[in-house]
Design brief:
Blueprint: H1 7-31, H2 36-61, H3 70-97, H4 110-180, H5 186-202, E1 209-210, H6 211-226, E2 234-241, E3 247-248, H7 254-262, E4 273-281, E5 284-292, H8 306-318, E6 322-329, E7 332-340
Parallel strand pairs: 2-4
Antiparallel strand pairs: 1-3, 4-5, 5-7, 6-7
Helix pairs in contact: 1-2, 1-4, 2-3, 2-4, 4-5, 4-8, 5-6, 6-7
């Protein structure tokens, strides 16, 4: 159960009470025969009461009500209602007795005055209830949105944590192949891997990174892969980018490049090739990766690796306007990724 007194909740009721006071003040200016300054002390005195009244009603009385215990709830409403009406009469009497304000309507019968006070108190309950429910709804929506964002960010971080070890595992396999063959290129491959590791550890912690940095790491990875092959491997890597400082999520593109080498050139028996084209124009990114394959289109079923599956999910979390298309042709596989960078969530 919520504790009886909360400063944060009481501030909410205070602001609602102030708005009700201002509303009554405007009504005094426009409709009452007496000058509004004459009614001002009384309105302030009653505003203090209705703030406390509605606070206890919604924070103490209402939480005790239950649809399963109708009789008990009815008794609570009746008992608390009588207590609140009694407190209202006492509050009004204290204000008059202490001469905090003077009753401007001395000619109005006492019974009618009590009726007016009761109507004012009951009306304030409806006013406070409506404003309070609107506030709670907006707060609930905001909280739900924040929780959704936190959940999506946690999932995105998890996908990244899966992608990085997957990428490093494949890269280490490449270096292992060179070391096993006692290749003189092994030291250079380790050096390039250290650059990639440094990039992953220190440059990819933020949500965005300049596209120039991602291009550089893609270039280092391509150079690392080429060390495994002789001159038979043909790699064409080009880009057409308007702004090299354009921000993109780090390591978003390299997965498709890695996929081309791991599932393409490594399985090609003839002359393997990889063609990579990246362009960004008018905040629309295009990545086209085409690579050779070891089997013809009729013998090969298009299946998505862990990297591609993770990439699809990352795109869902990051953008609302994107497309990832895979196409298998005769001894050739192509991947086309288009992203409207302005559609970032």
């Amino acid at each position: 159960m919520r504790k009886l007194f909360s400063i944060q909740r009481f501030k909410l009721y205070g602001w609602i009470g102030i708005s009700l006071f201002l509303f009554n003040l405007m009504a005094d200016i426009g409709h009452r025969e007496h000058p509004f300054t004459q009614n001002l002390p009384g309105d302030l005195w009653m505003a203090v009461f209705v703030i406390a009244l509605n606070y206890f009603i919604f924070e103490y009385t209402v939480p005790q009500l239950s649809g399963k215990k109708i009789l008990r709830s009815a008794l609570i409403v009746l008992g608390h209602g009588l207590v609140y009406l009694l407190c209202l009469a006492m509050w009004n009497h204290i204000g008059l007795a202490a001469k905090i304000y003077i009753d401007p309507n001395l000619e109005v019968p006492a019974g009618e005055k009590k009726s007016q006070l009761s109507e004012y108190a009951v009306g304030s309950v409806f006013y406070f209830g409506i404003i309070r429910n609107i506030y709670n709804y907006i707060r609930l929506r905001r909280t739900a949105q924040e929780l959704l964002i936190q959940k999506q960010q946690a999932e995105l971080n998890y996908l990244k944590s899966q992608t990085n070890p997957h990428f490093l595992f494949n890269t280490l396999n490449n270096i292992y192949s060179l070391s096993r063959d006692k290749s003189d290129l092994a030291p250079e491959s380790i050096l390039r891997l250290s650059k990639i590791l440094r990039y992953m550890l220190y440059e990819t912690s933020g949500p965005y990174i300049a596209v120039s940095q991602d291009l550089k790491i893609i270039g280092d990875y391509i150079a690392l892969e080429k060390l495994r092959y002789d001159e038979s491997l043909q790699v064409n890597f080009n880009h057409d980018i308007e702004d090299m400082n354009q921000a993109i999520p780090p390591l978003l593109l390299i997965g498709l490049v890695e996929n081309a080498f791991k599932h393409g050139t490594s399985e090609t028996r003839g002359r393997p090739f990889v063609n990579i084209h990246i362009s960004i124009k008018d905040r629309r990114l295009l990545l086209l990766v085409k690579n050779s394959t070891g089997e013809s289109a009729s013998n090969r079923k298009v299946t998505e690796s862990i990297g591609l599956t993770n990439l699809r999910r990352q795109l869902e979390l990051l953008y609302t306007d994107y497309d990832l298309a895979l196409k298998q042709e005769a001894h050739e596989f192509s991947t086309t990724l288009t992203i409207n960078l302005a559609s970032h969530v």
